[in-house]
Design a protein that fits this description.
This protein has about 70 residues and is α+β, with helices and mostly antiparallel strands. The protein has one domain. Helices cover about 45% and strands about 10% of the residues. It has two helices and four strands. Strand 2 and strand 3 form a beta hairpin. The longest helix has 19 residues. The N and C termini lie close together (about 5 Å).
């Protein structure tokens, strides 16, 4: 039995990378884009959620990424 791990791996990697405050934050507290800021607001969480969902959708559905194990 083979298992497709691409959706799980892609989601985990992009969740970590696109978490607000880790690498960048859109929009920031004082500027439109801030790097390694420790203050997160609701709007930046919403923007990062939209970006995350768009990237996941583009990578998993049209490109059809698959990683089979087993």
């Amino acid at each position: 039995m083979s298992v497709d791990l691409a959706p799980v791996l892609v989601a985990v990697i992009f969740f970590v990378v696109l978490s607000p405050r880790l690498l960048f934050q859109l929009p920031g507290k004082r500027r439109p884009k801030e790097f390694t800021n420790v203050q997160t607001n609701g709007l930046s969480i919403f923007v990062h959620t939209i970006i995350f969902n768009a990237i996941i959708t583009i990578i998993l559905i049209p490109i059809g990424a698959h990683i089979y194990v087993g």
